[in-house]
Amino acid sequence: MERSYDTVVIGGGPAGYSTALYCARAGLSVLVLEMLSAGGQMATTTQVENYPGFNEGIDGFDLAEKMLSGAEKFGAVSEFAEVTALYLSENPKRVVTSSGTVLAKSVILATGAGPRKLGLPGEADLVGRGVAYCATCDGMYFKGKTVAVAGGGNSAAEDARTLSQLCEKVYLIHRRDSLRAEKVYLDPLEKAGNLTFIWNTQIDELLHGDKLTGLALTDRVTGAHTTLPLDGLFVAIGRDPNTALVKGQVELDQQGYIVADETTRTSVPGVFAAGDVRTKPLRQIVTAAADGAVASHFVQAYLQTL
Amino acid sequence: MIKNITKESFHQEVEQAKEPILIDLWAPWCVYCRRLSPALDRLAEKFGDHLTVGKINVDEQPELAQELDASTIPTLYVYMNGGHGEKLVAPASQAQVEAWLQEQGAL
User: Which residues contact A204 (CB under 8 A, 6 or more apart)?
Assistant: First the structure.
């Protein structure tokens, strides 16, 4: 006999555990399915300073553990299993995992997003051998070396700052002539003595032997081609949503995010999308957590129609 | 059971272990290692006496890290009867680690 829940939440990041907290407190039976450990992208951030209420900052991993135990305190159940297939048009919905199948009256998709790749040949093979996506994670490997950051937003600016404190030399390479990043992320860059901006430039090729040795660059204004020797490249060009599981089952936008507005309702009744994975203007821990609360409201409304 | 493995204890605890031992090469500053850690704790609990998890801090044990070719971390190996198979680097899920353990014949 398969287990059945009022709601099954797929993904144990801030969106998932916020949904679980609110649903549990509303008296619903909730299962959170997380494939690795609580937190998602949040757990790779050691210092979260922009989640309201933690004015000394908080380690993302610790915040994740708090969110998990908060939800479990009110009766949410966590299972560390990987979802391998979803049947969202069935009622109840069927969730197939690495530890068996679960039935759900409603499903919350809170699978988040991951770093976007440049899409250059050889990129996947060079991960761990010069190409990285997380300065906090991998900056230490390049201590005293020369690296570049590709990107123009807050993440790119933040990564450049982190790396300027560790590396001998940092290049910030951007396709345009100015950064999108907010002032609070830009100010530290002005002060870094070992940071050089390379504007209006695209990366054409990853030059390598066993490891990354440099980049082939093109100036998008002049057309000039140059080679930049370096030891590491940090790609900070945005996120890609984790929606492979639901392709063809719920409506996705052009970039692959699940179409869902502030109500978190997707194109399928009883299926909701919360956090980075859905269409939204700002992807932060606080907006993911907000989605969780709102999703719970609409889950309850939906369950009443059954 | 989870053990801390050093250069000094490697031979006895790992190469001479009677039961399979899952080696986890990590570092305190490696945030992905930290995300993986609870998953390995759960596996250690799930398989109890049949599987030991041996953690090697690459900052403290640089020679071991080099010997074991852990240029990217987290890197996992399973040692059985003194030898080991293919390493697993930065697994995406607990299920992936479990499947790999089964393939290696450790479970």
Answer: A120, A215, A216, A217, A218, A225
